[in-house]
Amino acid sequence: MSDKKDTTTGGQSGAGLLPKLKSEVEQKGYLSRETLDGVAGQAGLPLNSVYGVASFYTYLPVSVVGKNVIKVCNCLPCEMKQASAVVEGIRREIGIGPGQTTPDGKFTLELVGCIGACDQAPAMLINDRLYGNLTAEGIAGILKSY
Amino acid sequence: MAEKRIVLSNCGVVDPQDIESYLKGGGFRAFEKARRMKPKVIVDEIKSSGLTGRGGAGFPCGMKWELAMKAKGRQKYLICNADEGEVGAFKDRYILSHDPFGLIEGMCIAGLAIGARQAYIYLRGEYHSLNSLLGSAIEQARSKGYLKDTDIKVFEGAGAYVCGEESALMNSIEGQRGESRYKPPYPPTRGLWNMPTIINNVETLMNIPHIIDKGAGWFSAMGTGRSKGTKVFSVSGDVGRPGVYEMEMGSPLKELVIDLAGAGDIKALQVGGATGNIIPGYMIDTPLSHEKLLGSGAVVVFNSTRDIIDVVYNDMRFLNEESCGKCTPCREGTEVMLEIFGRLQQGEGRESDISTLEELARVMADASLCGLGQAAAVPVLDALKYFYSEFTDRIDQSHYLRSYIGGELAISKEGIR
Predict the structure, then answer these.
(1) Which string of DSSP letters, residue by residue, matches B257-278?
(2) Global pTM?
């Protein structure tokens, strides 16, 4: 890829930025100021533009999250099948609500947009693993396996 | 009418982990045929088949290819849009997990047609678990020599619905915020890295090998005037058998949701995701086609216990969250609409809410930068059109609640108690 830099798109200076940020998240859990500084330095980009990219995407957290991130879908098909009961079940089990992290740093709970598992609603992702046809009672068993 | 499986014909039949099982069923035969055709002949074949984009917009595929084929550029790119993010849509997840080779073959043919050396599959971050399956399928195709003309890479998104919009998607690959671009220029002339680029949905590309193999005439014999071939649907909500179904274009909605998906009590349906049309149950005979009703093929069914205000509130919460924020009509419009629906839900509706929604809807449709904002008000206007009384009921109820909360004195003067 040798196309010259173009001002309307930022040229190719940002190529590989998203994969790089994703791999940092995979290794470190989230993107700290130091991590972002490092990435910006390597890519030859200003910190603000790297932060701007990171903060745009749901799956590139820029603040501390738990070791395991639970993403419960709250879009229509899941909400119609009692996604809120799943959230309640999680609260009963590990004592956190949406946007919170357990004190031991093991879990963070988030509500997210459609995860494309509406045929198995209500559904959630824990890290990258999909769990469908959830019940409030079944939650305990799933969380214990982490 | 039963299902008609063409796009899904290999799903559940071939082993998605083994290219040999795909080859045994005639896989890459269409690609070998395409290799002996001139690019223009391939493009003409797709043009005359009448194939349209399956991601929701329904743009004629061959016309897009022709623009990219003729466009000048040092490089040309092909992108498969696998950023399926529409609420209620999961057909591409199903296709990718059951028939990755069919997609690769479609991409190889598209690459030949437009002259793209490099292709990407933009896979939504939520489908990370499919990345290794796709990677292995690409590697197998590469080792068989099918990727000599057009190489394929998987590029994973990071959780942004708007990146399904093609210009936002390209920005995302370029390492930028996934915001929509001003158009023109359009991608076939200036797309990724400012080079001619074709972006096709997974399902669109899945059709290509079948068209090349069996001919444009075979394909265009199916469907309606502007909607040829079949369509793959994702059905969920209040149905007995949620799942992925493929039907000939023009089939009635009734056959999909009742006969195939097992719906019983149907108050309303939303077709095409969070920005899709909401129609009442009595319109169940509507044919599924670009002319009438289609979108990306996501169908959510609501039974009589569901409240339309709640439905639209949920749609709007999603759209507001996912608006990229670049243009004002979408960023602010979804915000105000969300606030209004929130108030209606909580018994704080006002008479002026309905006219505000109507006015905002017009501005957003006319002035938003991309499809997200342009279509965000579609469910709102449909809800007002078909379920007007649910709005007025909520507002009347709000009056009552306010007068009650407002104090005993006012109420006793009115003689309510």
Answers:
(1) IIIIT---S-SEEEESGGGSEE
(2) 0.94
Instruction: Characterize A122-145 residue by residue with b for buried, 16 or more Cβ atoms within 10 angstroms of its Cβ, and e for exposed.
Output: bbbbbebebbbebebeebeebbee
Q: Is A52 in the B-facing interface, judged by CB distances under 8 Å?
A: yes
Specify the CATH architecture of the domain A68-144. 3-Layer(aba) Sandwich (3.40)
Q: Taking CB atoms and an 8 Å limit, are A114 and B318 in contact across chains?
A: yes
Cβ contacts of A19 on chain B, cutoff 8 Å: 155-156
Q: Where are the domains of chain B?
A: 19-220, 230-302, 315-405
- B230-302: CATH topology: Ubiquitin-like (UB roll) (3.10.20)
Separation CA A42–CA A24 (nearest Å): 13
- Mapping DSSP to helix (H, G, I), strand (E, B) and coil, where does residue A125 land? strand
Provide the residue-wise pLDDT of chain B in tens; the chain has 417 residues: 689 999 999 999 999 999 999 999 999 999 999 999 999 999 999 999 999 999 989 999 999 999 999 999 999 999 999 999 999 999 999 999 999 999 999 999 999 999 999 999 999 999 999 999 999 999 999 999 999 999 999 999 999 999 999 999 999 999 999 999 999 999 999 999 999 999 999 999 999 999 999 999 999 999 999 999 999 999 999 999 999 999 999 999 999 999 999 999 999 999 999 999 999 999 999 999 999 999 999 999 999 999 999 999 999 999 999 999 999 999 999 999 999 999 999 999 999 999 999 999 999 999 999 999 999 999 999 999 999 999 999 999 888 887 776 555 444 444 443
Residue of B nearest to A49 (CA): B176
B128, B307, B311, B345, best to mutate vs chain A, most A CBs in 10 Å: B128
Distance from CA of B358 to the nearest CA of A (A): 23
Angle, helices A33-43/A17-28, rounded to nearest 10 degrees: 150
Sequence-separated (6 or more) residues with CB below 8 Å from residue B350: B343, B395, B398
CA distances B242 to A82, A121, B88, B233, Å, are 16, 9, 10, 10
Question: Exposed e or buried b for every residue in B314-352, given b needs 16+ CB within 10 A?
Answer: bbbbbbbebbbebbebbbbbbeebbebbebbeebbbeee
Structural fold of domain B315-405: de novo design (two linked rop proteins) (1.20.1440)
Q: What ranges do the domains of chain A cover?
A: 17-56, 68-144
Asked if residues B373 and B332 have their Cβ atoms less than 8 Å apart, the reply is no
Coil, helix or strand for B244? strand
CB atoms closer than 10 angstroms to residue B36: 7
H/E stretch holding A84 reads helix A83-94
Q: How far is A30 from chain B (nearest CA, A)?
A: 13
Query: Pick from B84, B306, B314: which is nearest to A116 by CB?
Result: B84
- From the candidates B87, B133, B317, which should be mutated to test the interface with A, based on the most A CB atoms within 10 A? B87
